[in-house]
User: Which sequence fits this backbone?
């Protein structure tokens, strides 16, 4: 079985398809986890035109994909990339909770739900910025 997988992954087109497919599935799973922990319905708010939620969600999407990018670049196997991306996602979650805890006078989720665009932009930038730090750290 390993020989078949090695042969499959030796083809750069199939390898790209494999990494892409796994990254998309993981992105959907990771976004579902983020949606579960936020105090608003991401996609309903976006549908209603909430720019702050769109910014925060876009930052999460970029952050997750950026971590995957670094993980794919730094690992030889799909499994290693998934493991390191999952660790990176866990760190991105930690950053989300730290952001919430570091601003006790400001309820981030409530402000984003109210379409406070300043908070939405900061949330976007934190996700993107932290993803670069996390990405540089994955091996």
Assistant:
């Amino acid at each position: 079985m390993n020989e078949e997988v090695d042969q499959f992954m030796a083809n750069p087109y199939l390898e790209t398809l494999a990494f892409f497919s796994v990254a998309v599935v993981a992105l959907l799973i990771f976004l579902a986890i983020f949606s579960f922990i936020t105090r608003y319905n991401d996609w309903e708010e976006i549908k209603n035109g909430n720019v702050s939620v769109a910014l925060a969600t876009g930052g999460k999407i970029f952050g997750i994909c950026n971590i995957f990018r670094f993980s794919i670049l730094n690992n030889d196997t799909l499994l290693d990339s998934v493991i390191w991306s999952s660790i990176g996602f866990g760190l991105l979650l930690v950053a989300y909770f730290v952001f919430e805890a570091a601003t006790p006078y400001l309820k981030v989720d409530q402000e984003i739900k109210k379409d406070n665009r300043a908070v939405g932009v900061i949330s976007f930038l934190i996700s993107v910025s932290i993803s670069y730090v996390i990405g540089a750290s994955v091996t």
